[in-house]
Amino acid sequence: MFVDKAVITVKAGKGGNGAVSFHREKYISAGGPDGGDGGRGGSIMISVDTNMSTLMDFRYKRKYAAGNGADGSRTNKTGKDGKDLTIRVPNGTVIREKESGEVIVDMSDIETFKLARGGNGGWGNKHFATPTRQAPRFAKSGLPGEELEVELELKLIADVGLVGYPNVGKSTLLSVISKAHPKIADYHFTTLFPNLGVVYVGDSNSFVVADIPGIIEGAAGGAGLGHDFLRHIDRCRLIVHVIDISGSEGRDPVDDFETINKELRSYNPELAERPQIVAANKADIAQDEELTKRVKNYIKEHGYELFMISAATNKGVKELIEILSAKLNRLPPVTVFESSYTPKQPIQGSPEELIIERYDDVWTIEGLWIERLMMNVNFSDYESRMYFDRVLRNAGVYKRLEEMGIEDGDTISIYNMEFDYTS
């Protein structure tokens, strides 16, 4: 099954916590703090795998997490860093931030990219020793790693895109000009996913051609298969518009040509400006001379080059290949989507965002800011409790409580920890 779109969640590892420890050794008194730092959390890496051609793997697994950093330990030992997690994707995968749709990275011009960065490890208590605080009994907690919900979108990397109605001979043409072996049959929608083929021109020149499955009227709005695969034309430098000059399907080639171009324009206006060559296929069975003349005049009037070919008999195919090669040599390289994503700063919260509620003589305080603060406080240590008290007072938390009517002896409850308030 060809899968070219997937949504996954990635979570980098949390940093390890710093350690609270004091040097213990025979004959050495008051050895001082020696708590080591926590290890860094593992990161999420994206790597291109040239052996992959679909996002099928992400159909069954949607959550990816890197390893957490280990906590620090005594004797100044830093915790082990968390293990990075590498996610393999096909070449040409565009990664977007799900919520905003902004492009994070286009994996067509780089091999490896760090998608989510692991959290820093927390400092051990050795960092908090001062001349006046020689035995700090607290350390910092590790920071959480980045977490993202991203959309993976595979846009095939091809120089030339073959477009046209179903059963006009695109797959046959691809099989003739390259070594690709697409499914070929005399019915519509034979091709159910894009096929790639490499066309060699001489000993040192080659280009890649993509056969885009049956685009029909309304494809840009979801009809047929074209809605799913129009995205694969985005990178193509040159479009070969294949029409059935014989009218063997009972359709008018001119109407087909106009309809397909309308769908390309509806999907992406830039595609209407993309260089385009018209390949009038099945010329070997074209019987209606009046129709052939009308098609030639219409294509000429609209400024396109027309090549009469027969993929079945190879008529005109060699000349078409030479023209494609010459035009590609003058065109800019394959499109690479520029990143438009600005990494979000970790949410730290603020004292102003705290939620304070009263239940009789009990006051509850909740919020990310105070939750993070409590993670870095050792409440069994007097100095740590005094530090916690100073931070709350300086941040204006006590002032808010007083303005709301708190009285001496009331209870303050913060995430299952309770304190008696004194002014």
Question: What is the element layout, followed by pairings?
Answer:
Blueprint: E1 5-11, E2 44-48, E3 63-65, E4 85-89, E5 93-97, E6 103-107, E7 112-116, E8 147-154, E9 160-163, H1 170-177, E10 195-201, E11 205-211, H2 226-229, E12 238-244, H3 253-267, H4 269-272, E13 276-281, H5 289-301, E14 305-308, H6 317-330, E15 355-359, E16 362-366, H7 368-375, H8 382-394, H9 397-403, E17 411-414, E18 417-420
Parallel strand pairs: 1-3, 2-4, 9-11, 9-12, 12-13, 13-14, 16-17
Antiparallel strand pairs: 1-8, 2-7, 5-6, 5-8, 10-11, 15-16, 17-18
Query: Which superfamily, in CATH terms, is the homologous superfamily of the largest domain?
Result: P-loop containing nucleotide triphosphate hydrolases
Strand count, sense and barrel status of the largest sheet are: 6 strands, mixed
What is the molecular shape? elongated
Q: Any idea of the CATH topology of the largest domain? A: Rossmann fold
Elements, N to C (H/E): EEEEEEEEEHEEHEHHEHEHEEHHHEE
Counting DSSP H or I runs of 4 or more residues, the number of helices is 9
Question: What would CATH call the architecture of the largest domain?
Answer: 3-Layer(aba) Sandwich
Which CATH C-level class of the largest domain is it? Alpha Beta
Radius of gyration: 33 Å
The proportion of residues forming helix, as a percent range, comes to 10-25%
Unreliable spans are: 187-191, 219-224
Structural class: alpha/beta
